[in-house]
Amino acid sequence: MKILVVDDSKAMRMIVLRTLRQAGFGDHETKEAADGKEGLDLVHQWAPDVIISDWNMPNMNGLEFLQALKGEGFAGLFGFVTTEGSPKMRDTAMEEGASFLITKPFTAQSFQTELGPTLNG
């Protein structure tokens, strides 16, 4: 499977990729994008199966990114990894079509719980 990690922080993208490896998903192909606009371009070029996105980013935030993808008929798994995990934010994410919302700080176990059913299938 192809996994796209979208976050404006290079350090956070590296942490997400490391956590994916620790969770047992290191054999999947990965790419990175620095914001939703770059992520959208990569989706068009590369067609990932799973997108893990930050919420707060410049140019196009995670929610706008998700909305653009859904408007184009993206059928893959999309979820957020963000510092803000309020019930309202979680509800908004799910209403817009996100499959999961993992709050920072996260663990390999939280990735296994949220992504395991898809990535191990």
Automatic annotation (TrEMBL):
A Gene Ontology biological process term: phosphorelay signal transduction system
Stored Pfam families: Response_reg
Domain of life: Bacteria
UniProt keyword annotation of Phosphoprotein present: yes
Keyword Zinc: no
Signal peptide positions (record): none
InterPro entries recorded: CheY-like_superfamily, Sig_transdc_resp-reg_receiver, ST_Response_Regulator
Residue numbers of 4-aspartylphosphate PTMs: 54
Family annotation (SMART domains): REC (SM00448)
Segments forming domain Response regulatory: 2-119
Gene3D superfamilies: 3.40.50.2300
Keywords: Phosphoprotein
Annotated transmembrane regions: none
Protein name: Two-component system, chemotaxis family, response regulator CheY
Species of origin: Mariprofundus ferrinatatus
